[in-house]
Amino acid sequence: MWLLKKKDASVEIGNGEVTYKNDDLIESESDTSSGSSKKDKDKPKDTTPPQNYEITIDQSLIHMNNQLELSFKILNAELGSTYYYEIDDTDETTTKISGNGSSSLSTVAVTDVDVSSLIDDTLMLKVYLMDAKQNKGAVETETIEKDTTAPSGYTVGIDQEKNHQSK
Known about the structure:
The protein is mainly β. The chain is built from 2 helices and 9 strands, in the order E-E-H-E-E-E-E-E-E-E-H. The chain folds into 2 domains: 10-41, no CATH class; 54-145, Immunoglobulins (Immunoglobulin-like, Sandwich).
C-alpha cells in the first residue's frame, strides 16, 4: 500500500510504480510488496525470541517464616528484555501471584515475593522473557513446596524420676 503525504504534489501511477514530483514532499514512498518503508527494509529484523535462559528458586521450602519473601533468579536473561512471572498453587479459588520487570543484567534477581495468599501445596513458578521487538521466549517452570502448618499431634513428657536421682 502506498502512503504519500504531500503538499500540492503531482502523483503518477503506472505499472506498479509511483512517480511524484514536488520539493515539499513530507514523507517518502513505501515498498508495495511488504508495506514497509525503504528505510525499514535496510534494517535487519529481529525475529529471534530470548532463549537459553533458566530460572532457579532460592529457597528449598516455603514455610511460615519465609512465605513473604520468596525469591528467584533468571539466569542468562537477554539484556533489555522484560520478564513476566506467575506463581500459583493447585487451588482454583486462590489468585495467582504475578509480576514483571526489565532485565538490565544477564542475571535478574526477583525478591520479596509474597506467596502467603497461596495454600500449602506445590507452588509452580512460570517465567518468560519478551524482547523489545515483542518476541516471546519459552516459558520456564520451577516448583517448590509450601508448608506453613505447625507440627501437631505429638506430646512431650519429662521423666522427673531421672532428674532427681543423686550422683
